[in-house]
Amino acid sequence: MKGKIIKGIAGFYYVHAENGSIYACRAKGIFRKDNQKPLVGDNAEITVLDEKDKEGSLTEILPRKNSLIRPAVANVDQAFVIFAMEDPAPNFLLLDRFLVMMEQAGIPAVICFNKQDLAGGDESGRLAGVYRDCGYQVICASARDGSGLEEIRDTLKGKTTVVAGPSGVGKSSLTNLLQDQVQMETGEISRKLKRGRHTTRHSQVIPVGENTYLMDTPGFSSLYISDMEPDELKGYFREFGKYEGKCRFPGCSHIHEPDCEVKKALEAGEISRLRYDDYLALYDELKEKRRY
Ligand code: GDP
Ligand code: ZN
Questions:
Q1: pTM for the predicted model, two decimal places
Q2: Is 77 exposed, middle or buried, given 0-12, 13-18 or 19+ CB atoms closer than 10 A?
Q3: If you measure from the C-alpha of residue 264 to the centroid of ligand 2, how many angstroms do you get, rounded to a whole number?
Q4: What is the SS3 assignment for 45?
């Protein structure tokens, strides 16, 4: 039977199988031999060993679409990054850091600004505008009054989505609302997953509908960008794309060089100052890291 690994803990992989049940499976030695460690998010083939106790064995990991190192998850279709408009106010450097990492991993990111009920209409329009102008889908939502929820459902439907964001922005509130719809189905799932709850926080996958999964990601605020040359960074700021190759100097970093089209666009207000400042901050950080 086929299924998806939704959690791995203490040597067991919990597999949400196509029949809707969750089986606790052990991985046989075959994976160690191939040097392939099963990841949360992997699609797998399992053999049911005990239907009553829902126990099985992982027999095969199906080919992966992609995988992330941090969090260690596989087969991610998109990332959904949540910040609050207020309380706490958004940390844009953290948001841009995350967006860069997703660009690097080739995973499309959707931005959600929650707690719209706390912000004025102007403010939410301005925040959303900055990122829409860069080419991102932005959803303004409120877990309090339910606004934006339909758009979130549409965006998640049929996909496996990494959900990220700092604490306090309303991630649990929003995911709980999304889960309500499929409570019958997930009742059993939540009970099973609660077992391992109090141990170290691992990534886990929450089924929220047919072929629709959310992955939560612990440790969001300690994100750092790794394995990147400073000169690579500009390639991950979408809005720089249309100026690339048009500056006077080939390989322009868009920082100190004269006749830089990105800086001209910045002065003309076509590129957001906020995003550009985060570009500088991340660039310096990567430069600094390389000195060690
Ligand atoms: P998490 O840490 O990201 O999972 O955030 P929670 O879902 O626990 O929410 C943190 C706090 O913000 C709680 O007190 C929620 O009631 C509150 N909260 C969540 N969403 C909203 C919202 O849309 N509007 C308002 N006003 N408060 C919210
Ligand atoms: Zn330039």
A1: 0.88
A2: middle
A3: 9
A4: strand
Distances (CA, A) of 214 to 164, 189, 226, 273, 279: 10, 13, 25, 33, 29
Q: How far is the CA of 247 from the centre of ligand 1 (A)?
A: 44
Q: Indicate whether residue 170 lines ligand 1 (CB < 6 A).
A: yes
| Among the bound ligands, the one closest to the CA of 168 | 1
* CA 262 – ligand 2 centroid, Å: 5
Q: Which residues pair with 40 in a beta bridge?
A: 73
Q: Is the CB of 147 under 6 A from ligand 1?
A: no
Euclidean distance between CA atoms 5 and 23, whole angstroms: 9
pLDDT values of the chain reduced to their tens digit, one per residue, 292 residues: 999 999 988 889 999 999 989 999 998 766 666 677 899 999 999 999 999 999 999 999 999 998 887 778 899 999 999 999 999 999 999 999 999 999 998 999 999 999 999 998 788 889 999 999 999 999 999 999 999 999 999 999 999 999 999 999 999 999 989 886 554 444 455 555 555 444 445 678 888 888 899 988 776 766 777 789 999 999 999 999 999 999 999 999 999 999 999 999 999 999 999 999 999 999 999 999 876 6
What is the DSSP secondary-structure string of 196-225? TTTSS---EEEEEETTEEEEE-S-GGG---
